[in-house]
Amino acid sequence: MTQPQLYTLVALAAYAIAMALIGCFSFGKSKTLDGFLIGGRNIGPWLTAFSYGTTYFSAVVFVGYAGQHGWNIGIGAIWIGIGNAILGCLLSWLLFANRTRKMTKKLNARTMPDYFEKRYQSKGMKILAAVIIFVFLVPYSAAVYKGLGSLFSSVFPGVETWVWMLIIAALTAVYLVVGGYVATAYTDLVQGIIMIVGVVCMVVAVLGHENVGGISGLMENLKAFESLPDDPNPVTGSQLTNIFGGSAFKFLCFNIMLTSFGTWGLPQMIGKFYAIKDTSSIKRGTVISTVFCLVIGCCAYLIGSTSRLILGGKLPEGGIDSIIPTVLMEVLGGGTLGVILLAIIMILLLSASMSTLEAVVLTSASAVAVDLIPAVRKKETKPEHQMLLTRFLCLVFVACSFIFATQNIPIIVSLMSFSWGLVSGCFIGPYIWGLFSKKITKIGAYAGILSGLLTVGGATLVISLQSGFSAAAAKSPEMGVAAMAVSLVVVPAVSALTKNKKEDADRVDEIFECYKEA
């Protein structure tokens, strides 16, 4: 066993023990359904802010997005990190956090499908939303598994990728099933601190590489960069140093919109607002979460922009998904200090992924146990039975995601973009308009969900039949952005043509009284 492998294993073992202890500590606070799903609506600003930020950024951001976009676009890719922090985090907290907390508390809604049912008086909408969540978040989490598994395989080349994915799945399942949302909140805080330390170490190490030469050297060397003759995707130095992305400007804009506005409709992100305890916590959480996202996002894409210099312009054998792992091995593979930093960074990427996985798993399991099954069966499900079922389905969802991840699907970024855009495109219109307007009708909300689903699904089917699924996956950012825009327009338009009944209008008026309460 080499020194990097030994240090990484020791760090991994310490991390696993810490996560298990947090799960055991949180067990007493997750014995009720409210406690298990939303922490009893009593989660403070630091825990909520870090939980939001760590759920936002997984290993796919580093391994997939930062590697691909930093390689192809260059320094301009940093705008994705800035957009994520300002649009996906700051604006989301300012616009939706307080309204979501108050309305879901008034409705006693614990999940996104539960919110839809009680806001629009529609059990069918609850069932549809639950099915969409459970089906389409599987590839989302599978992309996270695959990205992290590829990274660990670069450090342990003799171990199959699926082995690492299995270890990650088992560790996530243990502390999530035991501790529920409270466990994820505490682990997200620990993981967030690790992520900040790790990403700063990564930036220092990468900028200090002889082929980069610091910030000033980065710009000079990128400007002088020339692609290799056999480069399948050649770029010029002016492209890599263009602050606005150069010829990739349109592509850059779509990715900023998808990864930023997408958080406005993702149930695993919005669910953080259900759990925060009061308005003052929201104010502090807004600042903390935005700073966290700004640091992680900008640093990730900065690291990606150095990849062509560090690797001499040669794309690794593993393709796009191998760029960042290869960069890390090149920069940190030698010397005791480098090995220690490598171990820290591996735990950083593990933390980033597990925080996203736990949120997705909890969201999906609750969609079935709390929303889908009680809605389709005639007998009332007891809370304790829902608790057991939710814990069991957490295990099932982890297993499904693991199996999906082991399939040979190489386009990790497009896979995640597809799921991200489809789920957010279905929910963003009904969710946001439901918070702000009394005039939104049940039919309008249904139209928003179905229009988002048909926009992505229809476009995917047409492009796949014409050019194959790979071509459709490559268009996933555009499809996701289109679905979100269509949903936001369709909901109020259809609602304007379909009026609420008198009793529905009175019920909605009573719901909106929650905004007048302290």
Considering DSSP H and I runs of 4 or more, what fraction of the residues is helical?
A: over 70%
Content of β-strand: under 5%
Instruction: Label the structural class.
Output: mainly alpha
Tell me the major beta sheet: none
Q: What is the average per-residue confidence, as pLDDT, rounded to a whole number?
A: 82
Provide the number of structural domains.
Answer: 1
Question: Remind me, CATH topology?
Answer: Sodium/glucose cotransporter
Uncertain runs: none
Distance between the termini: 60 Å
Helices, by number, come to 22
What's the level 1 CATH class? Mainly Alpha
Supply the key terms.
single chain; 518 residues; mainly alpha; Sodium/glucose cotransporter; 22 helices; globular
Question: Overview of this structure, please?
Answer:
The chain has 22 helices and no strands. By secondary structure, it is mainly α. It has a single domain, classed as Sodium/glucose cotransporter (Up-down Bundle). It is globular, with a radius of gyration of 22 Å. It starts with a helix and ends in a 6-residue tail after the last helix.
Question: Could you provide a short overview of the structure?
Answer:
The protein is mainly alpha-helical. The protein has helices at residues 3-26, 33-38, 45-56, 59-72, 78-107, 112-120, 123-155, 161-207, 214-223, 237-241, 249-261, 267-275, 279-305, 307-310, 323-332, 336-376, 383-405, 412-436, 442-467, 469-474, 476-497, 502-512. The longest helix is centred in the middle third of the chain and has 47 residues, at 161-207.
